[in-house]
Amino acid sequence: MSWFFKRTARCIALPFAIAAAAPLPAQAWEPTKAVEFIVPAGTGGGADQMARFIQGVVAKNKLMNQPIVVVNKGGGAGAEAFLDVKGDKGNAHKIVITLSNLFTTPLGTAVPFNWRDMTPVSMMALDQFVLWVNAESPHQTAKAFFDAVKAGPDRGIKIGGTGSKQEDQIITVMLEKAAGKKIIYIPYGGGGQVATQLVGKHVDATVNNPIEAESHWRAGKLRALCVFDTQPLPYKDKVTATQGWADLPTCRSAGIPVEYTMLRGIFMPPGVTEAQLKFYVDLLARIRALPEWKDFMTKGAFNQTTLSGQAYFDWLGRTEQQHRVLMREAGFLAN
């Protein structure tokens, strides 16, 4: 992390007086041109939706004088985006929203990147994963689905997800191990595409984020079975006529011993100043205080954990190690 060094101002010497130097307070910084907001994934997914939501509320509420421009760089499971940010040292007019490919991509591909190559700004939330089936699926509950997987043949079901050796496939491998059966995993380019593939019955199930499938659930096209968190979702409003997020059991309580949540965090390039970092920390804090943000969190059924500073840095280190273990168990480590 870079550090901001306070400038000093020298007093003007009066005749026969001794000149003295005194520090001035740190000067505020703000962007002087458009801010590029990098999304290390395709359009329509959870990261893309959050980035574009932030772009919109910043403009609507006039939280900064310069515009935010969202740019999708999903190549190489996000490697394109991360290497771009890593290589743009000192550019405070660029930020990136991260998901857990922050950990999985370098671990699974050996791309020369680590989250420490960027400047952590703030954890905005943790995103959930929900087990979804088509609304016409015979499986009415998570237990019924899992029992069918266990009783069926190897490769008897197809699960769709975003990317290879990423979060969705890690969860699928954990489901395989819990069920003792092989599952066909089909990777797609983004969470929005994953949801539409399930609507079209091209796969039997998905482990999509809530915000990526909520509109299809509301429209009666998909059925939510359980959430892969340690606690049920707290949101009481109904999404369909009979069911809402709070009605979903945890997958573990439904007999599926799998738990996983995903990062939604903001980073900057390396080499930025402390004043530049503070601008974005403060900006994101103001965004989280908006009623629009609270509505966005409810609609997407997010786990509203937020961190910044040393606590965020420490969390990233612990979570990187957790992903190293998960990917080793799944056979996804590059070396």
Summarize, please.
The protein has helices at residues 46-60, 79-86, 101-109, 142-151, 167-179, 191-199, 210-218, 274-288, 291-299, 309-330, and strands at 8-10, 21-23, 35-39, 68-72, 94-98, 119-127, 130-134, 158-162, 184-188, 205-206, 222-227, 262-268, 307-308. The protein is of the alpha/beta class. It has two domains: 35-127 and 262-330, Bordetella uptake gene, domain 1 (D-Maltodextrin-Binding Protein, domain 2); 130-247, D-Maltodextrin-Binding Protein, domain 2 (3-Layer(aba) Sandwich), CATH 3.40.190.10.
- CATH fold node name of the largest domain: D-Maltodextrin-Binding Protein, domain 2
Radius of gyration: 23 Å
Overall body shape: globular
Main sheet properties: 6 strands, mixed
Distance between the termini: 28 Å
Domain count:
2
Q: Can you tell me the CATH superfamily of the largest domain? A: Bordetella uptake gene, domain 1
- What is the percent of helical residues? 25-40%
Structural class: alpha/beta
The CATH architecture of the largest domain comes to: 3-Layer(aba) Sandwich
Number of helices: 10
User: Tell me, what is the CATH class of the largest domain?
Assistant: Alpha Beta
Beta-strand percent range: 15-25%
Strand arrangement within the widest β-sheet reads 4-3-5-12-6-13
Integer average pLDDT? 90
Uncertain spans, ≥5 residues at pLDDT below 50? 1-26
What are the secondary-structure elements, in order, as H or E?
EEEHEHEHEEHEHEHEHEEHHEH
- How many strands? 13
